[in-house]
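Journal club side-thread
Mid-discussion, someone asked how the predicted structure for our own chain would compare to the paper's figures. Pasting it here so we can look after the session.
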Amino acid sequence: MIERYRRWFQYEQDAHAKVLASLETVHEDRRGEDFQRAVDLCAHIMAARRLWLHRFGILDQGEPDLFPRGVDPASLPALMEQTHALWSEYLENATDDGIARTFDYTAVDGQRFRSVIEDILTQLFGHSLYHRGQIASLVARCGGEPAVTDFVYHTREPIQPVPRSDGAPG
């Protein structure tokens, strides 16, 4: 199972790079409220990833602000790079037995819960997918070019058409 999450994480890194590039397609004079929401959502995705590392007991920098506002777009590349580096290290050392374990944590509202790490990993990927869709809509609303981040675009391999025996294209 851990190999699947490592693969998904490689996809997620690629998708986040595409999202950053899509933000750059928004012209300066169109970078208003919707653009800032898109930037803040990018920061929120990273904050959620850091929060779970904190809850796993891996990141000891205190709980991050889960819903940052007014994030400087110029800070996003470094934030993503740092967050991806932390997760790369975590996933590199993770095992199937490790992600099958349960752990206790306190939710944002103060309630205590127990979850399986694998379930949280699945949640994080779904969470990112959801918010990348929102970001794509906001970028389009701002006149930019939304990123195409569907998983299939990351995984598919082009093939050459097989020529037909009658000489027509395959």
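Post-session note: The beta strands are 102-106, 112-116.
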